[in-house]
Design a protein that fits this description.
Length: about 230
């Protein structure tokens, strides 16, 4: 885990009063109290207590110009309550060229996975995909309440499928993840704003993919770092 990770307050308990003056804060409170995957699951219920993990601002609309759209928490993130408090996070912060305080400043970078809670693991110990209940319940409301962002960095197939559709880039949905990555510049240039940049997951499981595609480091990462720096300014 990276040094200097900020502490995160525990998620609130179930009963949450709504604040009509701050609809985003009220929505975030409802998300943090969510038990849909336990009480109304579409398939086997979540095998543990929900712990939604997302980082978006509230009150003034957040202020973040960058959205990091990811997949779902893993075991370490489920325990920490902070996104990317693992080796994937270290690699992701290196890709972005940001330190941990900047990464976890929700007024500068919003982080919203497709499944807010850790979905559990399969029989081989691999993380399950994001719970489909989450996007069906929350994501349209959340992104309607958040600002448009300048830069939408989208990690993994599930998040890409959602945000390509949300941003009117359906023509790229038929491509698989590697095909999308190979056409990253075309996808990035397809909109003036918010601009979408697809990314592979920074997990160690993708180290082989990264080695087979050296252009990711030599061509995409310099653009990514420059765009992140510009959005943070
Ligand atoms: S994954 Fe999403 S829908 Fe399921 S319990 Fe967590 S917040 Fe609710």
């Amino acid at each position: 885990m990276s040094a200097s990770l900020p502490a995160m307050a525990a998620a609130p308990a179930v009963s949450v009063p709504e604040d009509p003056a701050d609809p985003l804060a009220a929505l975030l409170a409802r998300i943090r109290a969510c038990r849909v995957c336990v009480e109304q699951p579409r398939r086997a219920p979540l095998p543990h207590e929900p712990r939604p993990v997302l980082r978006v601002g509230s009150g003034t609309g957040g202020g973040a110009r960058i959205l990091l759209a990811s997949q779902a928490p893993g075991t370490k993130v489920h325990l920490s309550g902070l996104p990317f408090t693992d080796a994937s996070g270290d690699r992701l912060r290196a890709w972005l060229g940001v330190d941990a305080p900047t990464f976890y400043d929700a007024t500068r970078i919003a982080i919203a996975p497709m499944g807010f809670c850790f979905p559990g693991q399969d029989a081989k110990g691999g993380d399950l995909p994001p719970r489909p209940e989450c996007a069906a319940t929350w994501h349209d409301q959340l992104f309607a309440a958040l600002p448009a962002f300048d830069l939408v960095l989208v990690i993994g197939a599930a998040a890409q499928n959602y945000h390509l559709r949300r941003l009117g880039l359906e023509r790229f949905l038929r491509l698989n993840l590697t095909e999308r990555m190979l056409r990253w510049r075309e996808i990035f240039d397809a909109r003036q704003g918010p601009r979408l940049l697809p990314l592979p997951h920074p997990s160690w499981r993708n180290t082989g993919w990264l080695k087979r595609h050296p252009w990711f480091e030599s061509e995409l990462l310099p653009v990514l770092r420059a765009e992140v720096a510009a959005a943070l300014r």
